[in-house]
């Protein structure tokens, strides 16, 4: 399922309450300080960390393919008295009337793109929007497969209105050749005794350092930074960040 369809309806509604971690704004502020403004966040979702960067005076635009997530972002921006410039576009079809000194993804959002061809098209569009001397920051990771004993695991919480929210891992298919992992997730909300639910397939398409650099070079970009956060890049559980500049 494409991100523009996955992050809609009940998933967009439950996303903030059930996500496993929050994106800190500091690493992206440091990146913008070094690379320059204006900045563009790709896959900005419902506004984390973009809105915090705006609060701190950074000139940041946002792009996401989900209308529902952008609706939530605009609502949060209004509540915070912020003027947020956002666009609803797919990454591989990015076509904005601006160029940017800093383009970044907050988290490994690029792994939501289903295959290398779509990633290549996205990198080409990033290159087309990168100002002279600008840089792009791309976090990457390789997911661990879910152990069979953890199938059926439930993540649940109670929201501010007392509704019960939960997401359950139903099944998972992993393909090492295509570097994809498809997890069937069941999202549920029970409010005032009324239950709503939807099953969604969450696709991750991961990269190795070599496969990603090859795509970047084909898109007219070069790797100028490589920072490892965890593990051996390309191995399950590893996390690393690549900085790209124009050739």
TrEMBL record:
Domain of life: Bacteria
UniProt keyword list: Methyltransferase, Transferase
Example GO BP: methylation
Annotated GO MF terms: methyltransferase activity
SUPFAM superfamilies the record matches: S-adenosyl-L-methionine-dependent methyltransferases (SSF53335)
A Pfam family of this chain: Methyltransf_25
Occurrences of domain Methyltransferase (ranges): 40-134
Protein name as annotated: Class I SAM-dependent methyltransferase
Organism: Glaciihabitans arcticus
């Amino acid at each position: 399922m494409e991100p523009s369809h996955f992050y809609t309806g009940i998933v967009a509604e439950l996303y903030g309450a059930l996500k496993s971690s929050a994106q800190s704004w500091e690493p992206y502020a440091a990146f913008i300080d070094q690379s320059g403004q204006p900045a563009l966040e790709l896959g900005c979702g419902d506004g984390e960390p973009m809105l915090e960067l705006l609060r701190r005076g950074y000139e940041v635009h946002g792009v996401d393919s989900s209308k529902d997530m952008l609706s939530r972002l605009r609502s949060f921006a209004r509540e915070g008295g912020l003027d947020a410039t956002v666009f609803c576009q797919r990454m591989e079809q990015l076509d904005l009337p601006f160029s940017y000194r800093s383009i970044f993804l907050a988290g490994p959002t690029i792994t939501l793109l289903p295959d290398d061809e779509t990633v290549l098209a996205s990198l080409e569009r990033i290159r087309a929007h990168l100002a002279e001397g600008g840089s792009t920051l791309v976090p990457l990771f390789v997911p661990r497969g879910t152990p069979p004993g953890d199938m059926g695991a439930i993540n649940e919480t109670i929201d501010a209105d007392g509704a019960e929210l939960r997401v359950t891992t139903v099944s998972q298919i992993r393909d090492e050749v295509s570097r994809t992992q498809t997890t069937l997730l069941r999202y549920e909300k029970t409010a005032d005794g009324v239950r709503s639910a939807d099953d969604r397939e969450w696709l991750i398409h991961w990269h190795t350092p070599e496969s990603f650099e090859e795509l970047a070079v084909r898109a007219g970009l070069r790797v100028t930074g490589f920072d490892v956060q965890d593990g051996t890049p390309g191995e399950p559980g590893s996390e690393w960040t690549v900085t790209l500049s124009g050739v």
